[in-house]
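Q: Here's a chain of 165 amino acids. Please give me its 3D structure as tokens.
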Amino acid sequence: MASKSGSVNVKVCWLGLSSVAGLVVFVVTPGLSQVANFGSLTLTAEKPGGMLTGSTGGSTSLPAITSNRDRHNNPCLGFGDPTPDHILILQQPFSQLALKVNSGGFDTTLVIQGSDGVMRCGNDTGPKKDAGITDTDWAAGSYKIWVGTADPGMQRNYTLTVRAR
């Protein structure tokens, strides 16, 4: 599993109150990188798709850390790690994206949270148990992605494919 450590920028400023005493001010700002268990993918006009790999296995209720329903009132389901599995970065808006999980047919779920708070959730795709989401109006920005399972603690390796349509 990839490291779950993030970065923090710390600035120290000295404000002289006298020649003997000083005041220390710490300003903590989040680093530019976001934390994900298995990496990130950046989409541009020149690169409108890609693949990510990872494994499920958490026992945290994904609806409890995100939302019970998405923007289309679809239920957000599954169990995973509290840290997102992936970060999707869109350098520009996309009119439609399709995200599909391939775990070999195991029962997976998909939860996506945009930096604007918009939720997208997916479960079974047709007769298959693997999750997928095809949706419109993807704004430029960062999206946290969780790949979960229907039951807590189930470890399944997967490939996540992301494509603009």
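Q: Can you summarize the key feature?
A: The first strand starts at residue 8 and ends at 16.
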